[in-house]
Design brief:
Elements (H helix, E strand, L loop, with lengths): L1 E10 L6 E11 L4 E5 L6 H9 L6 E6 L2 E2 L7 E4 L11 H11 L7 H6 L15 H13 L5 E5 L7 H18 L2 E5 L3 H7 L2 E5 L6 E6 L12 H15 L3
Parallel strand pairs: 3-8, 3-9, 6-7, 7-8
Antiparallel strand pairs: 1-2, 1-4, 4-5, 9-10
Helix pairs in contact: 2-4, 6-7
Amino acid sequence: MIEVADLSVAYGTGRRRVLAVDRVSLSVPTGEMGALVGPSGCGKSTILYAVDGLIPPTEGTISVADEPVHGVRRDVALILQDAGLLPWKTVRQNAELALRIQGVGEDVADILNTLGLTGFENSFPAELSEGMKRRVGIARALALHPRVLLMDEPMANLDSLTREHIQKLILDLWKSLRFTALLVTHDIEEAVFLGRHVFVLSRRPARVVEAIANPEAGTAAYRGSDTFVQRVRYLHELLGGVQ
């Protein structure tokens, strides 16, 4: 479970102090997926990085699996928007990076195969499509066998077909591995398709405007349902009035 209680995050001091997140509380049950959606620059990524332990809270508390977050944990993995690949390393080396940093000698062949990257192990990022780069980023995160997967707009700037392919891939991985996940996205349809718990945020400083239960998420057929269309429309209207 991810539990965030009264989280506030401020940058700088004195006159330069900027409040990015203001008393945010949210909860994602174990084995489920939550989504943060809100205006650009509202503080979504700041919340995600605080859950990852990269940014300390100014106020409030964060816990993962009933344990307080005080720095980065091995059972929590983060996928960045641009995949964060090192251009001088191969697909295999990039996928193994987090393992090597932690001194783990585990092989990533099975993970690369699951993600359709077999045969590209010795390729460099410049030789890959954007969709394949994102899959390498996912492979690196999953190599740690995380209990919690944090995703910072992993489908951003992809064409619509590639975006839907990566969405389905994440959905299939979640079904088979049952990690707890929190997704940051600016795409409302994506948030509704993947997130069983959708948290709508205000403009900066981020506050939770509404937490929406979305139990139908997580099935391929959901995207074509009337419930999906209605929920997307509701979120559009809600975000249109966000202050």
